[in-house]
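Because discrete structure vocabularies remain unfamiliar, we reproduce here a specimen of the format, pairing a chain with its fold in token form:
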Amino acid sequence: MTVKLRQVGNSRTLTVPSGIKVTGKEYTVKNASKTIIFTPIAKKKNIFTTKSKTIQHSS
């Protein structure tokens, strides 16, 4: 599969072919020798933003 690099303003853009399943909106990019690796950023749930019930212990 071939993709082409194009200039958009001050950025270079790669278009993702429709045959590749997109799994996120943000990716990390690593340049390893002659290979470029795109990895989706895993969104982690912040456990402190959810409401939790307080458990009361009786003595």
Observations:
- The CA atoms of residues 1 and 17 lie 8 Å apart.
